[in-house]
Specification:
Length: about 180
Amino acid sequence: MTADDDPGRLARVAVGETGFERAAVWSAVGFAVSYVAFDAVALAGEVGGLTPAGVVAPVAAVLAALTAVGTTAYAAVGAGALPAVLLAYGPLAAALLRTIGPTPYAIPLADPLPFAVAIAEPLGVALAAAVAVGLAGYAIGRVVAGIGGTDGETDESAGTDGSAAANGDGEAGASD
């Protein structure tokens, strides 16, 4: 069976060697940190004499760049395409909610439909951006991993942590 005939190849590309759990947790953490980053930078900017509106675009740009780098690094260590997209979604959703979404921390309970529509638009755009950033990060990460010599082949004498296999005496090689 050649590598092209392997029925599990598509699953390994889609999911990767690391599961969705890590991507889901870091996506949620990225959402929370990114959402609050706008407030933290605005607060620091007020101390420095900047207006809060003047820090929105630079913060969003920095968050998008960090998301792209993080997604690329995540794919380089074995994540698949779908976890890379999931990882990118959290920070991008927070950045887009803060830049084009409704007023933060204000939920109109009397008429929630316009609020739901105002949230759906940035989240939909964030999904499209996460697919673009996640797939690009996956492609670049796999190229970087290939250049680094981690093409999935393992040395038969290496242990799971990359060290030489050892017998019970702590010596590498065959046992007595």
